[in-house]
Design goal:
Three copies of one chain form a homotrimer. By secondary structure, chain A is an alpha/beta fold. Chain A is built from 18 helices and seven strands. In chain A, strands 1-2-3-4-5-6-7 form a seven-stranded parallel sheet, sandwiched between helices.
């Protein structure tokens, strides 16, 4: 079976996961302006909206029509036209509220470093979701802002460090993130670069301009992350065409993980198609954790179980986290949560049914991966009692710490 | 379930796929001479016929005995001895006719570049299949023919281009193909080589002789393909022991795909075990398409669904094509078609049963991948009306455009 | 289904596999001292025992509690505390006897090269298992012993060769093994190094000390293995954090396999997550065989079928072997055997049920992979008649050839 069997929603693991409010440890805001068809379709895909090939004709498009349409009062599998018309009719705020509420997310850790001007703020996201938002600081954005402000090659390292320290000192920041995967990949010299190397590389970058993509500066960024002391999220695997997939196998980081053992937790985000490689690292390095975000909403519930099953083959149950990596569309917040709940629920329930796993163990694994692991790692407060009790009623009135 | 459940043939997606006449966008001819056991076994494997290890004792051997034997009037799972005896008794022409007819292929795009003297021509293949054949020009064969005819280093580039233009100008040619995967792998400098580089490399190759395997000339071949303007098929992944598998991950082509965006469609053939990497490229590059040919008959219906499921995790439904990559044995034309129909049928029907996909959507995906995508891409005519109606009767009288 | 359905134990393939005494062609001894919780947990994982993350909270920990607890007279899914208390109460000898007997292993090929002083000898292991033990000589340990004894750079090659010849001349030695994967990975120059290269590299190593990890000496070791003429086992893929996973893709060995074709059999051990790459090599190189040991007990019966299914997609059925790669804990001898039997049984029975495979063929594949392939490859004697008859009674009185 690719998806859970019908009637599965009455089974105990599915029930527990349905009632659990999730910690989404890596997501983004949603676009605050109204979207026309082209705007919506371009957000629906990691590719682009190509002539003659609708992004709706894809696994994620099918999942949106199946699982999101009913929340807009449409029948399952509604047509793209009907879907977009109804979406426009309801308006962005109402659409976002419906999906974010239905996602059942208690905590959102929001990466604010990619085109924040188009997106809702963490506070707005938390309000719509009826949860609490924290912030994840994207270090490349910090470095690029330092460069944009004007800095000399010689003062780049100090300037970046100061800006990063300031950024992570803001209220609500719980982690930093790097998109080294997009810039150089992971096939880097693992050693901390010297001051001279950084100054030389910074001089070249500042003269050249553009994104931070110099291998020395990317290494310097990763080592600066180590100094900051916060958990470090690393984009891994699947993304848009800027990725060179063969250079983002996370096991390319092995030497660097040896050098940084005992320092900060490293969270491998998304990972597909390298979920097994990420699982290996999580099994042998104390500091490594993983999720299969992004993939979850792209493949939908039809394949989330299969991918979670690979990710969990050898991963210690304390090492898997949930993220949606939703970006731009509130649909992705919902689909990520749904794919995680249904995929993990089916996987665990099946093992319970085969007596490979006891029900109490399955419920512990569900609770850990859906929230407890993230709460422990980021030092987040325990959920409010009504959430722990697995309340299925509407969440309490929206509030955000930010 | 690894294969479709019994009784599955009565379900709508399976029925539709069973009634659909396929477009096999990449295959080869069949051996026209009678084959003894050694000859048959050596074609049955991508390895060789080794002492003490019969190629029949493999997934493809089991699939032949299970699915091909009944078409030779033998019981399912007939012994290799009975199978070969009956095959010889019927004779090559009758055997080929039975398998090619049963494959239900409407269009065959035939790579004529590998040992064509042993194989049936596209016209013969089309006649036996009751379909229409088109030709795929293998560019390495064109280049090697130019070298064999005698050419100077300085005139190689022009001579190759002229010969390629002439080849693709022949009636019925719809695509070109490269086996760069076999020659250098994909870890190539993505840039178009300069004239001087090509002349120098051609001089060395012409002096040395042998197959075209120089990295500069392989790059030049790929860029010449871009100039020709036809869809470019690229062998990817699984093949014989000439492959260096770690050098044929298709994501090694990412830089080249960026440079050639907006030019020719690129069809990644076979792809296993890199079907997820190929799917990523198809999801983020407009010009990239894929199939899981070759694998289909090697793994048989027992695993085709699993591999198609990985290939389709994120692939836009307009981007997957069907090919058998059958070579030498008509059994492979049948097995490829059967594995595709059963694997895709099981995958889609299961999603329909789980209400993850609507039946009309499932039927559209089946129609697209089994033929419409290829027809659109290669500019092939629409199928005759009786085929569109899903006729299950014998195909009309054999005809070929070649 | 991730595991076999309940009631599956009454089906013929499962029954046959349950009654088959296995050949475990690669395993290790078990720790002979009593283990406290920390000692047990550190053996339970390829990582380490980390504060706050119990190795019991992992797929292998769950499998131990599910499948091993009942053999210690505890309920299924017993708590770690109860499990460890009962294990201590029974004592190491009784615990080992129970698990090794229950594993139903007829022949154990034991790698004696890693910390043998902590572990039971092959003879002790055979006695506890009620089977016969053979020895596998780890060549890196031989080389390091030569270096430790004192040798000059110039005499290293001869000294190593003499020591290796002596080691493989011992009674009961059936194979050699290399852990090149741990030392350099497989991205090596495939050519046999020259005498001068070896002398120079040996000089540097002897001066530097430490483990044998020089690329020239690792190549020399692999070529020495070829000269020895015995089957060569190669650790591949999953292991502890010394592995650089991206350098142990077995297809990196392709050039070396071409150069050594026609010499010794090469057994790719474990392979995960490269089981498909290993299968490709087994399909195209006569001398290549594979197993999915180590993985089997780490993933447990819940996922062994899925991994075996990938390993068997294209692997000739004469090319897959069984190993547990159990190390330290007798639990792993049991879990490896159980995961293999249940995973392979489910996979084959399902194909029989779908009529993709005949029952006699399924039983042959089961017999080949569970023992016959290894017996043929290592030249082991046929099993005693009662075993061939599939006796399910307790094995005969313990005996060992060593």
């Amino acid at each position: 079976m690719s998806g859970p069997p019908r009637g599965a929603e009455t089974r105990p693991v599915h029930e527990a996961l349905a009632a659990t409010r999730l910690v989404d440890h890596h997501c983004h805001g949603v676009v605050t302006d109204a979207l026309d068809r082209q705007g919506f379709e371009s957000l629906l895909t990691e590719g682009a909206a190509w002539p003659g090939i609708s992004p709706f004709d894809s696994p994620v498009g099918v999942a949106v029509r199946r699982h999101c349409a009913p929340l807009l009062d449409l029948p399952r599998h509604a047509s793209p036209e009907d879907y977009l018309a109804r979406r426009a009719e309801l308006g962005v705020r109402e659409v976002d509220r419906r999906f974010l509420t239905a996602a059942g997310t208690d905590v959102l850790c929001v990466d604010t470093g990619h085109l924040p001007e188009r997106l809702s703020t963490p506070a707005q996201l938390a309000e719509a979701a009826g949860g609490t938002a924290y912030e994840v600081v994207r270090l490349e954005s910090v470095a690029e802002a330092v460069a944009a402000r004007g800095v000399t090659a010689r003062s780049y390292a100090d300037g970046f460090r100061a800006a990063a320290l300031e950024a992570v000192g803001r209220t609500g920041v719980v982690a930093v993130k790097s998109v080294a995967a997009y810039r150089t990949g992971f096939d880097l010299d693992p050693a901390r670069p010297t001051e001279q190397e950084v100054t030389r590389a910074a001089g070249e970058w500042l003269a050249r301009g553009g994104r931070l993509a110099d291998p020395v500066l990317v290494r310097h960024l990763l080592w600066t992350a180590v100094d900051l002391g916060l958990p470090l999220q690393l984009h891994t695997g699947f993304g848009d065409s800027d990725i060179r997939m063969h250079r983002v196998d996370p096991t390319l980081l092995t030497d660097w993980l040896h050098l940084t053992a005992g320092t900060v937790p490293v969270l491998l985000l998304h990972c597909w198609p390298y979920q097994r490689q990420a699982a290996y690292l999580a099994a042998v390095f104390e500091q490594v954790y993983l999720d299969v975000g992004l993939t979850l909403h792209h493949v939908g519930p039809a394949r989330s179980r299969a991918i979670l099953a690979e990710a969990l083959e050898i991963t210690p149950f304390r090492k898997l986290l949930y993220s949606s990596d939703a970006y731009g569309l509130a649909e992705f917040h919902l689909l990520g949560a749904l794919s995680f709940r249904q995929g993990l629920g089916a996987l665990l329930q099946e093992r319970v049914d085969a007596d490979e796993l006891s029900l109490p163990d399955a419920l512990r694994v569900a609770a850990w991966t859906s929230g407890d692991n993230a709460r422990r790692l980021y030092g987040l407060p325990a959920p409010a009692p009504s959430h722990q009790a697995g309340a299925t009623e509407r969440p309490p009135s929206p509030e955000s710490m930010i």
